[in-house]
């Protein structure tokens, strides 16, 4: 059975990942599944979460994200193509994904947006903690296969850029970003031993 392909939309909070993911769906050959991490988090009960301390909340969020990684891998392992909407804002996330998604064709798309525009969007949304987007500096430190800038480019245009790139010989690159990240992690492990 063919393994599904994965497009990982990585960007700071409010950078436009969700909007681009929704715009991508009608542009790609069916079926593709949009699996935003926020939807997985939205499945969690919140009644008792108010009683958790900071350490317990951090553990719960880590378990949620680890489960998200494996849910994406499970969907793709049976031939489904998946669009991930997910910020790589903590180093352990990329380490786990590199391991969990080994053997999958992952296209890592950097969804970039200027800090000033991120702040404006965050304020306009009103559903994010103030300063969240600017605090996610690690998001933009990873290798990527393709970059879109949402500062002034609408989500539909960014989605078209991604869809077109997937049809051209420049994607996939050899090695792709996830393969380079995996190779770097393996070298670091060998050096540590």
Automatic annotation (TrEMBL):
Active-site residues per Swiss-Prot or TrEMBL entry: 38
Gene3D superfamilies: P-loop containing nucleotide triphosphate hydrolases
Keywords in alphabetical order: Transferase
Gene Ontology molecular function: any one: transferase activity
Keyword Repeat: no
Database matches in InterPro entries: CPT (IPR012853), P-loop_NTPase (IPR027417)
The protein's name in its UniProt record: Chloramphenicol 3-O phosphotransferase
């Amino acid at each position: 059975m063919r393994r599904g392909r994965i497009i990982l939309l990585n960007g700071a909070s409010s950078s436009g990942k969700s909007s681009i993911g929704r715009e991508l769906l009608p542009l790609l050959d069916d079926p593709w599944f949009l699996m935003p991490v926020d939807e997985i988090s939205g499945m969690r009960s919140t009644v008792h979460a108010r009683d958790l301390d900071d350490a317990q909340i951090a553990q719960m969020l880590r378990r949620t994200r680890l489960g998200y990684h494996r849910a994406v891998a499970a969907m793709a392992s049976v031939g489904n193509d998946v669009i991930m909407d997910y910020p790589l804002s903590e180093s352990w996330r990329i380490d786990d994904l590199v391991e969990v998604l080994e053997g999958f064709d992952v296209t890592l798309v950097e969804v970039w947006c200027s800090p000033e525009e991120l702040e404006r969007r965050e304020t306009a949304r009103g559903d994010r903690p103030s300063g969240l987007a600017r605090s996610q500096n690690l998001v933009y430190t990873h290798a990527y296969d393709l970059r879109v800038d949402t500062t002034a480019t609408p989500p539909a245009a960014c989605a078209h850029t991604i869809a077109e790139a997937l049809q051209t010989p420049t994607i996939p690159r050899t090695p792709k970003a996830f393969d380079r990240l995996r190779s770097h992690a393996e070298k670091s492990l060998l050096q540590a031993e």
